[in-house]
Amino acid sequence: MSALIQVLQKEGLAGILDTSKPSLALALAAIAFNPTAWNIVARNEYRNKTITRIFGGNAKAGCYFLALMIFSFGMLRDSLYQRALADQPRVPLLPEPLNLIVPAALAALGQLFVVTSTWALGITGTFLGDYFGILMDHRVEGFPFNVLRDPMYVGSTMCFAAGALWYERPAGLLITAYVYLVYLIALRFEGPFTDMIYSKRAEKKSS
Known about the structure:
Blueprint: H1 2-11, H2 22-48, H3 50-54, H4 59-86, H5 98-126, H6 151-166, H7 170-206
Helix pairs in contact: 2-4, 2-7, 5-6, 6-7
C-alpha cells in the first residue's frame, strides 16, 4: 500500500489509471450494458411477451434463452475486464503473502455467493423468470440470502475486487467501485418491479 501512496503522491491519478486505453472504455461500457440491457429486455418481456412469442409461447424456453444471453455477455464482460486490467499500470497493493491470500479469499467467497445464489434460486429464479410469469412459490431465505440481501451482485463485485488485487492494478479497484454503483442503480429499478409482480399475484390470489 505504501507503493500506491508513493505513486499517487508523485504522479497523481494518472499513475494508476490510464484513460487513454480503449480497453478501459470497453470494459466500463460492458459493465454498464449488462444489467441495464437485461432490465430493459425483461420489462419488455413482462409487458409484451416478445421472447415468449418467439419461442412459440413457451415461457420457460424463452427464459432459458435469456439466461444463455446473460451468461454469455457476462463472460464477455469478464474478458474485457481482464484485458482492461492488463493495460493498466501495475502497482503493488498488499504485502506478501497477503497479496495472494486476500484476493484468493475474496474470489472464493464471491464465487460461493454467486454459485449458491444460483443453486437456491434455480435457473428461472436467477435469470429473471419472474418477468416471464415463472414465479417462485415463496421467498428464498436460506444461505446466502440469510446473510446478504443481494448475494449475487455482492459476490460478483467481490470477484472484480479480487482480480484487481491479484493482478496488482489499482485501476481495477476503481472499476470495482464503478461495478458496485452500477449494481446499486440496477437494483433501484429491478427490486421494486419484481416486488410489483409478486404483489399482483398476491392480489389475484386474494380476490
